Sequence to fold (136 residues):
Amino acid sequence: RMAKEEDCRFTLLVPATPRSNAEAGERAATGVGSAGGGVYVPQQGAVEDNWELARGRLEYGLGILRKLGATVDGVVGDPNPAKAISDVLKRRSYDEVALSTLPKGVSRWLGLDIPHQVQRKFHVPVTVIRAKRVPS
Fold:
């Protein structure tokens, strides 16, 4: 995008996914974990840990993008990726949403159809960037 457009700006959004999902290799999870009945029950302090983990990922991502020459700001969002994206898009207008996720079949975001939900709700193009393999 930066090579095609002079005035290109980005916002990096990192949902505060539950740590249990991140540890299981589901970094692109929805924030809905499991406690037998399909409901995420955070351990005491886990919510704060999730936000701290997301802040670390955000700072890492901002550093990489800035080294590439990007003009970028960032935000840690709601653990639910659809809500996190919605919150950001309600505050500011964007030309496109680029959604980086795990490979098809592993990505919960793709399984929940998050790209199409965002496209339908906000009428903005969504580009999905899939990892080629699951990070170890």
